[in-house]
Design a protein that fits this description.
The protein is an alpha/beta fold. The chain has 10 helices and 10 strands.
């Protein structure tokens, strides 16, 4: 057995022991289901099918960027807890002062709109967690929440660090630094493109063990058959997009392509861009809720709860 395998096995055992200990002292374990959505319709679907909260963003195809104020306000009115992504641009997570100043403004706008949480993150050029940038965004979020009225959520606000940690030189070191920054939660795939691969490599269990008081939420290419293993690894939540694609019949800019009336589609972006877009699939959200609850039931050897219908 390699040193890495020994370390990962020890971390997994530590995480499992912590889960068992928490269950013994705090009653039935609850694993949250978070659905990434990009629209008001998607948020309504997620709520109706049993999601505990949504992560709201736009441009999910590039990993997501900050949603607009109008979209955020509309989704907040559904009653589902909204955690809004704060990411000023696509690309990497190494931000200059201009980027951070924009994101501070975005944090304040989102908090004022009534979100239940914000999702932030930043790295340094050497691949380490940019603790100064994260602390700056956390401070902006806490200050904005402290100033808002009770009807918009008051001072209570969750701060999640997003999958920038999966691009870190050491995802385990990155997550270990979060508790000192006042972060509540981290979304991670365990330093891999897919959470199942982060689990198999041992990095995800290591992150659970290193997180301290920070909740670990597994996300990144999560499929329904991954859920049981993720729950067994001790994650506090499971995150997925539960999306399908609504598409036109032809790609924009493709010679001879056209819409249903035979008109040529004009490209409005890069070559090969289409008019397709992601929509939240109710059946996938419903199945994910059932999978999470069943995995918790198996872990505790109890019957799954009966889902409570939720109004759209």
């Amino acid at each position: 057995m390699s040193d890495r395998t020994r370390t990962s096995s020890s971390a997994a055992a530590t995480a499992a022991a912590a889960v068992a200990g928490n269950a013994a002292t705090s009653g039935p374990r609850r694993v949250a289901l978070e659905i990434a959505v990009t629209s008001l319709a998607g948020a309504r679907t997620a709520l109706a099918e049993g999601a505990d909260r949504v992560e709201l963003c736009t441009a999910l195809e590039i990993g997501g960027v900050t949603p607009s104020q109008g979209l955020t306000e509309a989704v907040v009115t559904t009653g589902v807890p909204v955690h809004a992504l704060v990411r000023a641009r696509g690309g990497d997570f190494v931000y200059d002062d201009t980027d951070l100043a924009v994101m501070e403004r975005e944090v304040r706008t989102l908090v004022a709109a009534g979100v239940a949480g914000v999702v932030v993150g930043a790295l340094r050029a050497d691949g380490s967690l940019d603790v100064d940038a994260v602390a700056r965004l956390v401070s902006a979020a806490r200050d904005a929440a402290g100033a808002r009225p009770a009807e918009l959520g008051g001072p209570r606000l969750d701060v999640t660090v997003h999958r920038a940690v999966d691009r870190a030189a050491s995802p385990v070191d990155a997550v270990a630094a979060l508790a000192a920054l006042g972060v509540d939660r981290v979304l991670t795939s365990g330093g891999a493109s897919r959470a199942r691969d982060g689990l198999a490599s041992g990095v995800l269990p290591d992150m659970v063990a290193a997180a301290g008081g920070v909740e670990v939420m597994a996300g990144g290419g999560v499929r329904l058959d991954d859920v049981t293993a993720l729950v067994e690894a001790g994650v506090a939540a499971v995150h997925l997009s539960a999306s399908t694609t609504a598409a036109t019949t032809a790609a924009a800019g493709t010679p001879g392509a056209g819409d249903e009336n035979g008109r040529s589609l004009v490209s409005l972006g890069s070559a090969g861009a289409t008019d397709s877009y992601a929509v939240t699939d109710a059946s996938v959200v419903r199945a994910a809720r059932a999978a999470v609850d069943a995995a918790v039931a198996v872990a505790r050897d109890v019957a799954p709860r009966t889902p409570t219908p939720r109004a759209p």
